[in-house]
Amino acid sequence: MADDLELRFERTVQAEARIEPRDWMPDGYRKTLIRQIAQHAHSEIIGMQPEGNWISRAPSLRRKAILLAKVQDEAGHGLYLYSATETLGADREDLTTKLIEGRQKYSSIFNYPTLTFADVGVIGWLVDGAAICNQVPLCRTSYGPYARAMIRICKEESFHQRQGYELLMTMMRGTQQQRDMVQDSVNRWWWPALMMFGPPDAESTNTEQSMAWRIKRDTNDELRQKFVNMSVPQAEALGVTFPDPELKWNEERGQYDFGSPDWDEFWQVVKGGGVCNEQRVAHRRKAHEDGAWVREAAAAHAAKHAPSKEGAA
Amino acid sequence: MSTTWPLWEVFVRGKRGLNHVHVGSLHAPDAEMALRNARDVYTRRNEGVSIWVVPATEITASSPDEKDPFFAPSGDKVYRHPTFYAIPEDVPHL
Ligand SMILES: [Fe+2]
Ligand SMILES: [Fe+2]
């Protein structure tokens, strides 16, 4: 019987059909999905902080409205994804606890500080750009609720990337000081953006099984290469350079060659040693704890106004 | 008292003339808040003209394990589909 179920699961995945919440699935598949989707959801939620840092200091009402809408979208993305984990039997409260206790991870990119307003533009262009590269193939991931959440998210991400790029174009048309600010920001974000695709394939422990289950659709290195190929012409159009002396077009491969990110730095940030790790988690914890009275009050209000079931019985 | 708000399933009518379609879920203390949260989470870009929220515990679903017998009645009734009927090519508007 168990073999039967497993066979049906495998056939469904092979046929590019989707696994849905009430289907039988291997324990490992469920666990991997919960871990990956939760980590993704946490990234969206923590990812509000670096940019949220600039909402009150946006240089115009237009930029402020755009940034608010963008950060609000990221909150929405986190919620779509938490909702997907719940279809797998995860408990949202439990996931939040794991995040604020440092027991579950989020993307390391958000542990870098946003030092200037140009960072808002560069995050939209490169960080959301890298996220799009990662996420577009996930629209075909084998788990239905995850794939559907990704479709919604991808639709919204293109606004994120374009507003960032447009912001940078505006700054590049400004003063020399503004142009320098953009270049400085690109210099700081380029390598962390490349790290967003995860460690090199040779060191990536989860890739093979996840590819077999069609949770993951492309390897880390494939996606990283794709991102570099897409970004170089955009940098040229903008008038900035990437801080990589090895970056050049390879006629034979029909792709760009590029240098290797500092993987020691990557692991250090993953393990908690980034500039902002502590601050990000502490801020999330504070928001959660400060909101406790609201959750309690709303629950009390709802209980008071709920039609009494016992009374009716 | 548990402060974990109950889970609600959200259905959105994309535009007039279409059915409500399931879009996801959210937590809210009551139906009214669930509707408000659904508006903010699922319809930030005019994705809908009407929203339903239903407590997740109130939904009864067929289980995939009984899928075959449950959906079997329609499986052998091909005559319910218009393509079952061969109509000569030169008969218009059919
Ligand atoms: Fe996002
Ligand atoms: Fe985004």
From TrEMBL, chain A:
It holds the Pfam family PaaA_PaaC. GO terms for cellular component: cytosol. GO terms for molecular function: phenylacetyl-CoA 1,2-epoxidase activity. GO terms for biological process: phenylacetate catabolic process. Gene3D superfamilies: 1.20.1260.10. This is Ring-1,2-phenylacetyl-CoA epoxidase subunit PaaA.
Automatic annotation (TrEMBL), chain B:
It comes from the Bacteria. Gene3D superfamilies: Phenylacetic acid degradation B (3.10.20.520). InterPro entries: PaaB, PaaB_sf. This is Ring-1,2-phenylacetyl-CoA epoxidase subunit PaaB. It comes from Lentzea jiangxiensis. It holds the Pfam family PaaB. The lineage of its organism: Bacteria, Bacillati, Actinomycetota, Actinomycetes, Pseudonocardiales.
